[in-house]
Write a structure and sequence with these properties.
Elements lengths: L6 E4 L2 H12 L14 H13 L3 E8 L2 E9 L16 E7 L10 H14 L6 E4 L6 H9 L3 E8 L2 E9 H9 L1
Parallel strand pairs: 4-5
Antiparallel strand pairs: 1-2, 2-3, 3-4, 5-7, 6-7
Length: 177
């Protein structure tokens, strides 16, 4: 799967709302916590993200077609405020691969690897922070595969989360292995 390449573009809240709605409301996306969202709710949520200087939503493109969703955020201002001590160079991340009837072996691993590489393209990023639901064992395994180390469980208003970190060095070592 290392030959898969992705491009990234900002989410267009209006133009991408229908697609994103189909992704985030699917049962596979239960941890995205938008299962009951209407199309307008999805459009509103991504319009708010587009206007937020501390939160950005991007589509990952494969051969020009939308293949996954990623969000990056400043944990000093969003998601994790008051739940840990942010460091300079920290960036938070979420990603979602849509459900498919034809799963491709290694695709999700290729996605998280591309997301991490994209984040670390910014020389100011020193560490990626994630806070997946503690029950999401599949994403914990993916996170570990690209160099994340779990620090501790935290309580967010909507979930119990596993606070985990990945430095540039751990990522580079993990993907070289």
């Amino acid at each position: 799967m290392t030959d898969i390449t992705f491009d990234f573009r900002p989410v267009d809240p209006l133009g991408d709302a229908e697609l994103l709605h189909s992704w985030v409301t699917h049962p596979k996306a239960a941890f995205w916590m938008m299962r009951d969202a209407g199309r307008e709710d999805v459009e509103r949520a991504y319009t708010e993200i587009a206007a937020d200087p501390h939160h950005h939503a991007l589509l990952g493109l494969r051969d020009g077609r939308a293949a996954f969703l990623m969000e990056k955020y400043d944990p000093a201002h969003r998601e994790l405020v008051g739940l840990y001590e942010p460091r300079p160079g920290d960036v938070g991340m979420h990603f979602l691969t849509p459900a498919t009837d034809a799963p491709e072996h290694g695709f999700t691993r290729a996605v998280i690897t591309a997301v991490m590489a994209h984040l670390f393209e910014d020389p100011a990023v020193r560490r990626v922070v994630v806070e997946p639901d503690v029950r999401n064992k599949a994403v914990h395994a993916l996170n570990a595969a690209v160099g994340f180390v779990a620090e501790r469980e935290i309580r967010k208003p909507e979930k119990s989360a596993l606070l985990s970190f990945c430095t540039r060095e751990r990522f580079t070592k993990a993907v070289a292995a």
